[in-house]
Design brief:
CATH superfamily: START domain
Protein name: Activator of HSP90 ATPase
Organism: Nocardioides daphniae
Strand content: 35-45%
CATH topology: Alpha-D-Glucose-1,6-Bisphosphate, Chain A, domain 4
Number of strands: 8
Oligomer: single chain
Number of domains: 1
Helix content: 10-25%
Radius of gyration: 15 Å
Low-confidence stretches: none
Distance between the termini: 16 Å
Family: Belongs to the AHA1 family.
InterPro entries: ASHA1/2-like_C (IPR013538), START-like_dom_sf (IPR023393)
Number of helices: 5
Strand order of the largest sheet: 1-2-8-7-6-5-4-3
Largest sheet: 8 strands, antiparallel
CATH class: Alpha Beta
Mean pLDDT: 96
Shape: globular
């Protein structure tokens, strides 16, 4: 499994996940740059994602929903802040209320930095999410974000091997 380390820190309000992939940095970057590939790995395996909008440029927005096994949709968005292709990008990550991707003010928001670096002939990916409040971090931890994110990231291996 690619995920090699997972930690969270209430003082800094962060979750950090590190994963190693046997693929070049450019190939891992492509997973996030292509909405059809991203759909195959964003979210836990039983909650596949559909990206409705995918503008991975500074100021761009990526809107998506995940579908539960029962057919319920859960909406989310990314607001892209900066892009350093193929090494890193950062974005505001939030929950949405509906298919118009209206921000949900009752759910936590984080700023995430996804970075990719050459490591042992492959890629080391570091995913850091910083929440606005400790309560927000605690809420997503209770929701199972670490398990969900880890299982999602672990799907990348099969995608890049294909």
């Amino acid at each position: 499994m690619p995920v090699t380390d997972v930690s969270h820190d209430l003082d800094s309000r962060t979750i950090t996940i590190v994963a190693d992939f046997a693929a070049p940095v450019k190939r891992i970057w492509e997973v996030y740059a292509d909405p059809r590939q991203l759909e195959r790995v964003w979210g836990p395996p039983t909650y596949p994602a559909t990206f409705v909008d995918h503008d991975m440029s500074p100021g761009g927005r990526m809107n998506y929903y995940m579908t539960s096994p029962e057919g319920e949709r859960y909406y989310g968005y990314w607001e892209i802040q900066s892009v350093d292709e193929p090494h890193a990008f950062d974005f505001v990550d939030g929950f949405a209320l509906d298919e118009q991707f209206t921000k949900n003010p009752d759910m936590p928001v984080s700023t995430s930095v996804f970075s990719f670096a050459e490591h042992d002939g492959g890629t080391r990916a570091t995913f850091v999410s910083t929440y606005e409040t400790v309560e927000g971090l605690e809420k997503v931890l209770e929701m199972g974000v670490i398990e969900g994110a880890s299982s999602a990231i672990n799907q990348i291996d099969d995608l890049v091997a294909a």
